[in-house]
Amino acid sequence: MPTNKQTICILIPVFEDFECLPILEEKIKQHLSPVADYSILVIDDGSFKGLDNKLGIEKDKRIKILTLSQNVGHQRSITIGLCYIREHYDCDQILIMDGDGEDNPADAVKLISESEKHSDPTIFFARRDTRSEPISFKFGYLLYRVLFRILTGKNIKFGNFSLVPNELLDRLTGIQEIWNHYAASIVFAKIPYIEVPSSRSGRIHGRPKMNFVSLILHGLCAISIFHQTVFLRLLIGSFMLLFIILAIVFTNNVASLNIDNTYLVLCVLFGLFLVLFNFTAIIFSLKSRNKAPCIPRQFWEHFIKKGDQ
Q1: How many C-beta neighbours within 10 Å does residue 254 have?
Q2: Domain annotation covers residue 297
Q3: Residue 178 — left, alpha, or beta (φ > 0 → left; ψ -120 to 50 → alpha)?
Q4: Which helix (H) or strand (E) holds 29?
């Protein structure tokens, strides 16, 4: 257990999940009060429902609610929250966690304890060793991780639940990819991170809002951050496929395989198409580097509801 209390700002993005927050706040108080002095910043992602519960939460002096002018999604809410903390908070660490209770505050203590062992600026992620979702969701998540590994060459077994040192805020809020996917952008930017084992808890109230379609979009956002690597890997794969097809042709093995010449021509054309498509895609992807990046700390204030700055 940490002996010296750190000052921690807890960043919680919420969309119409205000019924969970009072219970979550009690759990946070139970686990974090002995080890840290904390305050809570809730990012209201343009909610329309649960506003009565929101009014009750705003009376808590430890909780600040920042309301966005529109629904921008979980990942951008986190990014805006980090930018706001950079401008308005003086703290040692930022703890990012979901507001539905699936990120266990007891695991936050593990992240804090682990951070005490390292002096270099490092982000500590809660690695999800066990999950509480249905089998279908677990299968979809496993498929996402496999595709992510194949297409990017990277492994990712963590989400938003993390502890960020204040020293890294400048760097984080300068990464344009963080708009799309917080965790993947950390890997992409080569920021040092350490995974800490954790168990994902169940929701405090209601049903999970991430369905199968949302999971697919979330996974594609993560993969899109590595688009140049993805196109390059697909280009290499296309070359290998074309090489295998041409090898069959030039080694006179077509007859032994009983393949119709029409199908063979179509296969060769398809292989050439894949090569040309992925080659063009990677050229355009590299060309996009000429564009000025959309730096979060330069634009985040445009998403804040008027009068809530």
Answers
A1: 15
A2: no
A3: alpha
A4: helix 21-32
Q: What local confidence, expressed as pLDDT, does residue 113 receive?
A: 93
Residues 6+ positions from 252 with CB-CB distance below 8 Å: none
**Measured distance CA(142)–CA(161) in Å, rounded:** 18
DSSP code per residue over 124-180 = EEEEEEE--S-HHHHHHHHHHHHHHHHHHS----EEEEEEEEGGGHHHHTT-GGGGT
Residues 232 and 214 in one domain: no
Kindly list the strands in the beta sheet with 36-44, ordered across the sheet, starting from the edge strand earlier in the chain.
63-67, 36-44, 6-14, 93-96, 158-165, 123-130, 193-199
Tokens of 212: 């199968």
Bridge partner residues of 123 (DSSP): 193
Q: Do both 162 and 126 map to the same domain? A: yes
The answer on 285 and 256 residing in a single domain is yes
* pTM for this predicted structure: 0.84
Q: How far apart are CA 281 and CA 275, in angstroms?
A: 10
List the one residue out of 105, 102, 123 whose CA is nearest residue 114.
Answer: 123
Which residue type, as a one-letter code, is found at position 182? Y
Estimate the share of the chain in helix, then strand, then coil, as percent rounded to the nearest 5.
50, 15, 30
CB atoms within 10 A of CB 282: 19
The DSSP code sequence of 75-106 is HHHHHHHHHHHHHH---SEEEE--SSS-S-HH
The predicted structure's pLDDT at residue 281: 80
How far apart CA 111 and CA 116 sit, in angstroms, is 9
Low-confidence ranges of the chain (pLDDT < 70): 1-4, 131-134, 203-211, 249, 251-261, 264, 292, 307-309
**Structural domain of residue 242, as residue ranges?**
227-290
In a domain, 261, yes or no: yes
Q: Are 32 and 109 in contact (CB under 8 A)?
A: yes
